[in-house]
Amino acid sequence: MLRPFLVLFACVLISEISMAQTKEQIDSLEKEFLKVIKNSPPPPDSILRKKRMMYDEPRTPDTLHFSNIPAYKVKTFPSIFERAFFKGTKNIEDSMELEFYSVDIGMIQIESGKIIACDPIVMGDMRPFVQIFPMGKFPVQLAIARIRGDERTAFSRIYFSQAPVVKWEFALDSGKKQLPIGGEHMYGYGVDGGIGLFIDAKANQAFSALRAKDEDLWEKVFVRGMHEHTTWEYTVFQFGDHNLASFSTGFGDGSYATYVGYDAGGRPCRLLTDFGLIGWWRRSGTSGDTQ
């Protein structure tokens, strides 16, 4: 989890759920956190191991393994949405080099084609995006950025197919209109607990019903049930025929946009949340937005 002083700093900057915000606001947040990373090394693994031992109840199995994503020449802006999941991708942000690797954290069950992405704190009140997604079981993948010994979740995504992305659009709440990618404003869901999730709308209803019977369920899943890896964490939690995937959100609290990637046939092939580590919008005038 985030170190305490990061949490205090981030809570001041939390944005409202699904509101449009300016790229300048995100730039400011990113720069402040990068300053912290420069001057504050991550806690040693021995400390993290002691923290994990605090909880004596069994967890869900750690399903983590490295992704093996076939690289291709990305032509769609922003290219970092895809390239961050390719082995060996690097990027320079605020004079610091970020090196990426990607992991599969497990399979998510999409039952209704309607998906929610949000902070788990508010999951019971959330409505799904208006876009309809493929149904079945699909990998949930994280692109992890190494920054001077620190590691952060840069992007999370559901990988519906291997088809290349030809177009990105915002994943929209009901009543929202599309905004231009790389424009002045963006939509984002608010995070106040340092983690986000993906869950099918049907599974979300089932989780709410289960939680009504077990008041300790939320803490079991999203506090004691998280698997920690360096300075990021995740869980894939199964409950009956349903499940959910939860993960750390970049530098922690903030407001983060979710995008739908479409293939050449107009079918959704990705659902991706960007946690603001890469300022790709500052290079929105070119298709090769990162080096």
Q: Can you describe this structure?
A:
With 291 residues, this protein is α+β, with helices and mostly antiparallel strands. The protein has one domain (4-57, 86-283). The protein is 20% helix and 35% strand. It has helices spanning 4-12, 23-39, 45-52, 80-83, 201-213, 217-222; strands spanning 19-22, 65-66, 90-93, 96-110, 115-118, 136-147, 150-159, 167-170, 185-191, 195-200, 227-229, 232-239, 242-248, 254-262, 268-274. The strands form two sheets. Strands 1, 2, 3, 4, 6, 7, 8, 9, 14 and 15 form a ten-stranded antiparallel β-sheet that branches. A hairpin with a 2-residue loop joins strand 12 (232-239) and strand 13. The radius of gyration is 18 Å and the shape is globular. 41% of the residues are buried. Mean pLDDT is 82; it is low at 1-19, 41-56 and 284-291.
Annotation keywords:
291 residues; 6 helices; 10-stranded antiparallel β-sheet; alpha+beta; disordered N terminus; 5-stranded antiparallel β-sheet; disordered C terminus; globular
